[in-house]
Design brief:
alpha/beta; Enolase-like, domain 1; TIM Barrel; 8-stranded parallel sheet; 3-stranded antiparallel sheet; 13 helices; binds magnesium ion
């Protein structure tokens, strides 16, 4: 079974409410869909969103990387030698992790279809359902409390709260406002998206600990490159600290784990370059006693479906952050992961289970 063609198409889907973090504000989800077709006519789907502020990729760079560099490297290769395919995919250009992820997940879609299994079963089949959190964008405290209450009423038990804009006082006020509104039952995990210095992070997290705000963990408190700062925050607070933007590839994970710079790692296919490298990062973390979350960028249902299949098949993945498709004004994907409120499940369809993409 040979890879016969690799094609891309641009998509743009509006969000129902702007997504705001310390790094950016998003009102439309842009993405590039990938379709890999085999000599037998099987189709594998993939997706890569341009997340300039995190991966450095744009629509143009992703389209160019896939069509001009990755496709010529992979066309004609045999799916029975998938290891060769993934080696070539990772070696044909450096970085460009989202472009690689889109093709990687389409290859995994095909490998699972070829084996007659849904992808999560092809990868190990550990869980059949997942529970996602829902993200509260960073805004004024009252708006954030209103949003949090609405999501809890909609059935979300875990909220991921974006912080890291303005002063530490502003961030503490945000969390107080949310806790006062939703009570202590919903879990709150914070994401500062690199918005604090190490000292600010230690101060803010200690204040939240003293105030009894019960934070499950704090994601990426400090700038991505500041591993010493990340370690300082991890060492000087009781709250669990998660590395996100600090860990793209296996070598990044290795450094964070060697330094014990974080308690947890957030794996995203768009940072790792796909499932092939995500498995390696998770295995390394597991060997070091570090649990992982799987999250996403602002992606549509193809990327999230691939990430969910990977997450469900690996017991060391303890946390799931898959709310992006729920923020979109429309869903162009027929098939893929199934949402019922915060619960996600898989169909019995083979591979990613995506039957087609409707015109936007
Ligand atoms: Mg994050």
């Amino acid at each position: 079974m040979l890879i016969q063609s690799i094609e891309t198409v641009d998509v743009a889907v509006p969000l129902t409410k702007p997504f705001k973090t310390a790094l950016r504000t998003v009102t439309t989800a842009y993405s590039i869909y990938v379709k890999v077709t085999t000599s037998e006519g099987l189709i594998g789907y993939g997706e890569a969103p341009p997340t300039h502020v995190i991966t450095g990729e744009s629509m143009d760079s992703i389209r160019y990387a896939i069509n001009e560099i990755i496709a010529p490297s992979l066309i004609g290769l045999n799916l029975l030698e998938s290891e060769r395919i993934f080696q070539k995919l990772n070696a044909c250009l450096v970085r460009n992790t989202s472009a690689k992820a889109a093709v990687d997940m389409a290859i995994y879609d095909l490998l699972a279809q070829q084996s007659g299994l849904p992808l999560f079963q092809f990868l190990g089949g550990y869980k059949t359902t997942l529970e996602t959190d829902f993200t509260v964008s960073v805004n004024e405290p009252k708006e954030m409390a209103d949003d949090a209450a609405r999501y809890v009423n909609e059935g979300f038990n875990v909220l991921k709260v974006k912080v890291g804009i303005g002063s530490i006082k502003d961030d503490i006020a945000r969390i107080h406002a949310i806790r006062e509104r939703v009570g202590n039952k919903p879990k709150l995990r914070l994401d500062a998206n690199q918005g604090w210095s190490a000292k600010e992070a230690v101060k803010a997290i200690r204040m939240m600990e003293d105030a009894g705000l019960e934070i499950e963990f704090v994601e990426q408190p400090v700038p991505a490159q500041d591993l010493e700062g990340l370690k300082k925050v991890t060492d000087c607070t009781d709250t669990l600290i998660m590395a996100d933007e600090s860990v793209f590839l296996v070598n990044d994970a290795k450094r964070v784990l060697e330094m014990r710079a974080a308690d947890l790692i957030n794996i995203k296919l768009m940072k790792s370059g796909g499932i092939y490298n995500a498995i390696k990062i998770n295995t390394l973390a597991e060997a070091n006693g570090v649990a992982c979350m799987v999250g996403s960028m602002i992606e549509t249902k193809i990327g999230i479906t691939a990430a969910a299949h990977f997450a469900a098949s690996h017991p060391n993945i303890h946390y799931y952050d898959f709310d992006a498709p729920l923020m979109l004004a429309k869903d162009m994907i027929v098939g893929g992961v199934i949402y019922e409120g915060s619960k996600m499940s898989f169909s019995n369809e083979l591979g990613l289970g995506i039957s087609r993409v409707e015109k936007g």
